[in-house]
Design goal:
By secondary structure, the protein is α/β, with parallel strands linked by helices. The protein is 53% helix and 8% strand. It has an eight-stranded parallel beta barrel with strand order 1-2-5-6-7-8-9-10, surrounded by six helices. Strands 3-4 form a two-stranded antiparallel sheet. β1 (193-199), α10 (235-255) and β2 form a beta-alpha-beta unit. The longest helix is centred in the N-terminal third of the chain and has 39 residues, at 10-48. The protein is globular.
Length: 630
């Protein structure tokens, strides 16, 4: 069946047909026996109601996630019972119904290679095997940027990119243009898998940037984020990047209406400006602490930003005395009006949420104008030129989100390095307030759970969404900048913002998933939506178990893995009716090469992890099964 395709020459087709017929004739007795056993087992299932009243057919049983050995003999699978009734064409396929199978007491079998690699032909499976094996060689991965430069010099771009196109590019990327990715997206959709589209091309550089190479699995925290780092050249370049992101939103609408677009805010504004914004936001947080603690923020200075405790509230007396220590107060009534303005819920107390919501970046210059002395907050305030760039950044992001809302496309804002992350948080909260007020969220924030204190940040944002009445949307990842963040902390002589151990990150990651899942179960809360971005089988199993325990709708929780990796997770989830997605990069091959190189180097340790070793073993076993002679 696999060999005899419509494109095969007639002679090859005839030979394949004869061999297949001979094989079927040889196996006919076993198949007959299997059919009898299958019929008996189906009757037993109906009598004992093991499928909880679900209508049972021989074909549904043959596709069950963990059938008994009697229900899934190799002969039955060879005859194609598992494929009966599944949708394999893009036309009419949907995310919710493509080839779903029944769950056996909620336990998913991620070890079935026929489900994991059903979407690949044998040649593609062979390519996957070669790519995984190549990426397992440390020397090749560490020096792939030099090897690429040497190949470009010796063989030129045509040969070099031709080789890359049919290996790394086609494995990890969907195509070069928005139109060119449609067949790949449709193919994924035919198996119930959606796409998260990411235009991965970078501004051209004379040199390829050095990648961060983790040393081993213990220092690699989960599935990495996109590896792009934008170089700020001018406002015109930021406008061009905004146009690219808008094209990506349109591409999602045209290729996969139920998909997502991914954007990076560092491509829409000067990263140095975003660092200044982050510094100002951090100082505003510390100023809130100083007001409450007699001016002492020594403890906060030593802590990573997300570890700062902001759970307390200020009453009028504390606020008044603290404000007077730092600012000139000429009018008692004006100070009282300031307090009442910040106290939005009128309970006589100011929480950090109210403080952060009311005191805006654009107001800091006015605020520090009354300061008795110029401290860190005054030094961090944005000047007029920076405020103009800040508003330009906001306008670009709003144009993208206006288009996304008009087209009904959801947008995931990537997390980035810690020095600019507070600015990203600030902007995303602003966008969520504006665009997440409908039936489903448009803007999704990304939380990097390898950061200390990030669990507290999620609880704050969940509470903020409840108070302000908008839909919470999140992508939960482990993180991607661990090596550089630890090195920066060491050089600066401060505590590292990264969790000390993999186990700590894992605990944070799982706690975040549970908190978001439980949010919608509480009275008065709207249902939160979340994408669990992970290649970790244990994390996936934990999430599906919690969903069953809490009675969560599968339509509000999504699972995402990188294109070309963890297919045994993605396609098994999709087969069982979960919302499974692939993170789908695309762009011109000559411009995507830096992305591919960094992606390969980032994943060097992950590619040696037990999970990927299991996937490689499954690929080899499936190749052997397919290549065995009839």
């Amino acid at each position: 069946r696999r060999a005899a395709s419509a494109a095969a020459p007639p002679a090859a087709f005839a030979v394949a047909a004869v061999r297949a017929a001979a094989a079927i004739a040889v196996r006919a007795p076993q198949m007959q026996t299997a059919a009898v056993r299958l019929k008996g087992d189906v009757g037993a299932l109906r009598r004992t109601r093991l499928l909880d009243g679900l209508h049972v057919s021989p074909f549904a049983v043959g596709r069950a996630s963990r059938p008994s050995p009697l229900l899934q003999p190799p002969q039955v699978l060879a005859c194609g019972f598992r494929h009966f009734g599944s949708t394999t064409s893009a036309q009419g396929a949907s995310m919710s119904g493509a080839g779903q199978v029944a769950e056996d007491e909620g336990v998913l079998d991620f070890g079935n290679p026929q489900i994991a690699f059903e979407s690949m032909n044998t040649l593609q499976l062979f390519r996957s095997c070669i790519v995984f094996q190549t990426c397992a060689f440390g020397w090749v991965v560490r020096n792939c940027d030099r090897l690429y430069a040497m190949s470009m010099k010796v063989f030129g771009g045509r040969i070099t990119h031709g080789i890359l196109r049919y290996t790394l590019f086609n494995h990890f990327c969907a195509g070069e243009t928005a139109e060119g990715i449609v067949p790949r997206i449709n193919h994924l959709r035919s198996f119930g898998v959606g796409g998260i589209l990411d235009y991965a091309a970078e501004a051209k550089d004379e040199e390829l940037p050095k990648a961060e190479v983790p040393l081993d699995e213990a220092t690699t925290v989960g599935a990495p984020l996109s590896a792009r780092k934008y170089e700020y050249i001018s406002e015109a370049m930021c406008d061009a990047n905004a146009a690219i992101f808008m094209d990506a939103v349109r591409a999602v609408r045209n290729a996969d209406p139920d998909g997502f677009a991914a954007i990076k805010l560092s491509g829409l504004g000067d990263p140095k400006l975003m660092e200044r914004m982050s510094t100002c936001l951090v100082e505003l947080t510390r100023f809130f602490l100083k007001i409450s603690r007699d001016g002492d923020d020594t403890t906060a200075l030593k802590l990573p930003y997300y570890c700062i405790d902001t759970s307390f509230k200020l009453d009028w007396e504390t606020f008044s005395s603290g404000w007077r220590r730092f600012c000139r107060v000429e009018d008692e009534e004006a100070l009282r009006r300031t307090f009442d303005l910040i106290d939005t819920d009128k309970d006589g107390l100011i929480s950090f949420l109210e403080w952060a919501e009311t005191v805006r970046l654009s107001d800091v210059n006015k605020l520090v104008g009354d300061c008795i002395r110029q401290g860190p907050l005054a030094q961090s305030a944005l000047d007029e030129n920076e405020l103009e760039l800040y508003f330009n950044l906001i306008n670009r992001v709003q144009k993208i989100m206006d288009l996304a809302k008009e087209l009904g496309v959801r947008v995931m804002v990537d997390a980035e390095w810690v020095d600019i992350q507070p600015a990203i948080d600030h902007l995303v909260i602003f966008l969520q307030r504006k665009y997440n007020t409908g039936d489903r969220p448009i803007v999704f924030q990304t939380y990097q759970m390898y950061l200390k204190g990030m669990q507290q940040s999620i609880h704050v944002d969940l509470e903020r969404s409840r108070r302000e009445g908008w839909r919470f949307g999140a992508k939960v990842v482990r993180g991607a900048y661990m090596v550089s963040e630890r090195e920066k902390a060491r050089v600066r002589g401060v505590e590292s913002p990264i969790c000390e151990t993999y186990e700590d990150s894992e605990a944070n990651y799982h706690a975040a998933i549970e908190a978001i899942l439980r949010h919608g179960s509480s009275p008065g809360n709207t249902e939160a939506e979340m994408l669990v971005a992970s290649h970790n089988r244990g994390s996936i199993e934990l999430t599906t178990r919690l969903m069953r325990e809490l009675g969560k709708d599968k339509g509000c929780v999504y699972f995402g893995q990188l294109l070309g990796m963890a297919d045994h997770l993605t396609f098994t989830l999709a087969k069982h009716g979960y919302k499974a997605y692939k993170y789908v990069p695309y762009g011109p091959i000559s411009e995507v090469v830096p992305y591919l190189i960094r992606r390969t180097q980032e994943n060097s340790a992950i590619l040696g992890s037990p999970g990927v070793q299991e996937e490689r073993r499954m690929i080899r076993n499936e190749l052997v099964r397919r290549l065995q002679p009839f």
